[in-house]
């Protein structure tokens, strides 16, 4: 057997653990050598159980380990950029959870560091690897539905986050809609030019008090002339609602929610079927495995990763434009945000 | 048998004929006594065949017939208001096809005349009587999905109208979206407060040259705090696409397209099912009958019609706001349009 | 206008009334001149309301009316054959509800009389004209699914008939399954060669006490080599269940139940959709109109009716074979039944 | 970490490899210590790659290894019974692929040996662990659809096996339908009392020449009074068709095929969706993992396995009854087969 790729996972909350477990179960060529987390004591039993030998409080232990080839940055958002910069300096390939940062400045710095170091870098926009959305992309690309004219994304969470979280989340557009902005760019094959937000606080007043909204309709104008709309809610009573429709000159393609079973029950009361899979861990289970697969393939075959640095930046710019649109009650061009930052 | 209600149909194009035939086939208490149309010669064989005895070139023949209780105004849009005013003066009950007019002034005049005369008046927003949309209304009203938060309407035609028609149509918002504006008010149970349009010419450049657009996403803000979005296209390759989704605090209800059959064919090539019913005559067939039924019930039982005068005005105001929003690239409040007109 | 075809309806129970109303509403070339029924007093108000002028107790009044061109025989099953024979003698075209009779002898006599008289004759197997089943037929005929190999029919009623009715009904196979036997012949394009019944009394013990069963699986062998299965229940808690699947060498086609609306409601409790249309009057509404249309077309264009005499006989033979199969616990060939009768 | 359960896999064809890989990826408490196969040379690279250390030609090497706690018997059907007997003698727990044998005698012997040894024994009826079918079982058990009255199984393969295989397969009923017989028992909660087969050779004449059939409708009578039907084809042009419907006194539950995506594509040509997942490895992927999980749970918690010895015997008896029914053209009781064997 060839030498395995050695991986260190920085941050082993829910998503860090998930990536580690996927690598252990499905990637015979990859070894998860070590994990680091400020609260590592809580995760030692887990690490032991899945067979990870080294556990650290300080992520620098991983960066200083010359044997480690790859780091997965799954720590809190505010640390992504800094750790990326340090990791790039040590020459390690980087998988970084989204978003890279909530500010354009720090994203720019991180991306420069990565570019300079010449390491592989992939952002955790896992939905690109979802079976349903990949199929949409494929059909759009094949030209089966012609030129894209209207793109529609429905993205609703089953339950709102606590107001405490909302305060540090960067707001709904950088925390939740950012995935949808990535999808919009990915599926349309075009950059977003302008956004307009109609938003409201309808789910939880505490979210409004925290300065955010919980319900939104975001209109999009793409550079290629297409238009689009995203609708978000922080709380869908029936569960996680993730649907996409692309309408083109020759037809449309539509994907809907996955369910646990195909059971349809008919009784005197009516006809019943399954609710959507509960939340992102269930619905996007396969996509997390796929994104790892393509990331390691890019490393092994020394080719571009499927979600490059620019893909980490653009959705943040759109998110900032959306925020401004809502605050000022007018359409905002992405260029306006870019110029604002470049002039700084 | 009691005396039948006697009806005159003014304008026997496609929709006038449809109403007449429905009355003849399904309303034993109603007699279609006469029809009038500037091109009546083209319709004489039809009238003879369905058993209508009197055919006129001039609609005034109908208005002057004291025996006639009810007129259906199915002539060209620019004549709706004037004929409504004249008909009201003769004391006849009025069913008027949508829109009443393309201008607020003429609508106001017509509605005043109707009010003054105390006759029944119903506008032809037939979609309210569609089996699917009625069910949505019912579920919203019952509170099964809680308070309305997001309302989504997809409304796409199978083929664009000729550019000649587009020029006199009043534009996509008064010609096509007007039905969706009515649906939005009807299903949300609230007035629209503000609209914002993202539009494009993607179907036919001739439509653009005629000063109109053919593809649009219209964001809506309702007075009750809900938000909404309508997406329109003048051409869906797969046919007439008419779907509505209402999302509320306790769930959602979604209706999709009707098809001719439930057949699902599975072969080596894939799994195939029916396209939507071709166009509005097929899809809304039942709704045209239902709107007549409720109109004549209102007359017989002397109660309010289900689509009153105000329902004829409001969608036009929203349409005019949408037009302005697109032209000026900003959200426009309905009040702005109202004030504009009241200040004249 | 040409002279209208004059029709007399014999028997104005539920189905006779339905045919009369359809003719009045949708067939401008047809006049329902008179109706006859032993209990005509109960139907006089109805006749008056829909505009039928002549009402009789005795159906002979209709047969003796030289003006009448066509009779619809919608009386009780035991009278179908005799009235058909009498009507054929007067030269009137005949539409006869199914089944022609419960005995082969009387069907044979009726069919001979019809043939001798040279009048049109159509049996009321309305399901052939159902939009879904017609589509299945079309696809089978087109060869899109190749040679038919397996045919499956699910046919379940929403509620069992009273035991009193069961006693005179001829049993489930002649009363209920007879429609499915017709479908089997129609869709496979082949005669049934042999049947085998697995049956049970699971719905209502009174049905068992009346000498009948209420739940059955009927295996079919067709002359062309295909095989098939029908499953019946007298009571489906969720309503009328009418589905058909044809599986062939190149694929399958499947039609399912019609519903009143396409509404899908998602709440915390689950995802809900409509139950099937309640019963045959709702589900097969369109088919009753279509069968009339094709019957009168056959008369007007002097061509063969779409459901000929033989189509009235064969399902009865299959029903008798099914009865014998259940009683004797063995597969029974249709030929065995035929020979039994021809040897009498 | 506790001592891992040590497993030997006997036979590493497609299914043996699948089980080994599932254990390695998802069962941290289990170690696949060794594998044996007469053609082990073909599988050495695979074993090395997934990290299995010991590979043998002779399965006795596994049986003689005192460290091994559990064997998975995935060799050819004719060896299942003998190896089970030998393994039982060494005190190892046994997972045995279906069927245990094609003859009742050898199954009886194997089951006696297992019982005597007191080891755990589970037969590879993986479909019981399929997400869809488990849900059906759950709903039936909960009483949501009342008492089971009709059970319907559709089970069609995407492509027929080679005639060579057919000759040694034991025939369609023991090779293919055996899974459906298991499902019938499992879902109805009752034993099958009688079967009747309507069969045909419609897919491949070579199958007929090999003495088998390729298309069948199998009627079932259950001991609890319910009835059922299975339809089989060796070749569905559109792929693997696996659907089940259970109809009861209070309603029905129906599960249909899984697909790779939920994509619906609408174009001028029609509306298209995914074909079913290709074959059993794709469709039943999850079920193979689940059956291992429940098997090892039974070992760890020292409780009864979910598919016990009797569950290995009964479907073979039903299969033999089905064979006889087809050969003799009559319904055959399971008791008849049992008595035949017990009298030997």
Automatic annotation (TrEMBL), chains A, B, C, D:
Domain Gfo/Idh/MocA-like oxidoreductase N-terminal: 5-125
Keywords: Oxidoreductase
Superkingdom to which the source organism belongs: Bacteria
Keyword rRNA-binding appears in the UniProt entry: no
GFO/IDH/MocA-like oxidoreductase domain segment(s): 133-253
Pfam families to which the protein is assigned, alphabetical: GFO_IDH_MocA, GFO_IDH_MocA_C3
Gene Ontology molecular function: nucleotide binding; oxidoreductase activity
Family: Belongs to the Gfo/Idh/MocA family.
Protein name as it appears in the record: Myo-inositol 2-dehydrogenase
Species the sequence originates in: Anaerovirgula multivorans
